[in-house]
Amino acid sequence: MPGLQIVLGLGDNSEVPIPINLLKRLISSVASCCLALAAQAAEVSVAVAANFTAPMKVIAQNFEKDTGHKARLAFGATGQFYAQIKNGAPFAILLAADEATPAKLEKEGLGLAGTRFTYATGKLVLWSKKANLVDNRGDILRTGGFNKIAIASPKLAPYGAAAMEVIEKMGLTAAITPKIVQGANIGQAFQFVSSENATLGFVALSQVFEGGRIKDGSGWIVPLNMYKPIKQDAIMLNSGMDNPAAQALMQYLRSEKAKVVIHSFGYQL
What we know:
Blueprint: E1 5-9, E2 15-19, H1 20-40, E3 43-49, H2 53-67, E4 70-76, H3 78-86, E5 93-95, H4 100-107, E6 117-122, E7 124-128, H5 140-143, E8 149-152, H6 158-169, H7 173-176, E9 180-183, H8 186-194, E10 200-204, E11 209-210, E12 213-214, E13 218-221, E14 230-236, H9 244-252, H10 256-264
Parallel strand pairs: 3-4, 3-5, 8-9, 8-10
Antiparallel strand pairs: 1-2, 5-14, 6-14, 7-10, 7-13, 11-12
């Protein structure tokens, strides 16, 4: 009806009439704002190296709070992700456990040139669930006081390759190889040790590090000069080119807030 009004009651028992046309405009404006916010929020599918599981879960939560975008995370071995991406897996970003895989994807035209950067440098630790078993020099590897030792697959996971490099450097390849149990990725290697199916194992420091120290059991943080630096690179893949959430996450990983989280899990920056 022309001239119809809605009456707004105020807390002091007074009333203010609102014309219906104005109310319609207000409702339309609110709806437009909601639609604009929904349009700005997007989702990005991220392949994450298993060693980076704990920090990335924290970063993803902060990312969603700070930007409204959502990151859907998949965790696994970098080598397996490479094969999946080659076969068309719809990931928009790869957070690798090495620098070679993102470089290869870029060269093969599956990753966007100019988007690669090192988001963290990993550290290797020899760790056991048992307190006081692993000394601060890794001498237990020489004494052989263990049944099984877990490592990630050296062919698929850079942390597994680093573990073999340390064993070879110590001259213990022949002695230790028969005791090795391999996980498909560093997450599975950690599970072997955590469940005590393996007495000890080489895992990522980030998996056992909290509050500036190894939080459980015993461990030897392997000196960095005993293995090649585990530089972990990120790259935006082709499907992320026009995805605002992918672009925002690549920027967010370089932010001070993200760096604080990454450093807190024992990574170098």
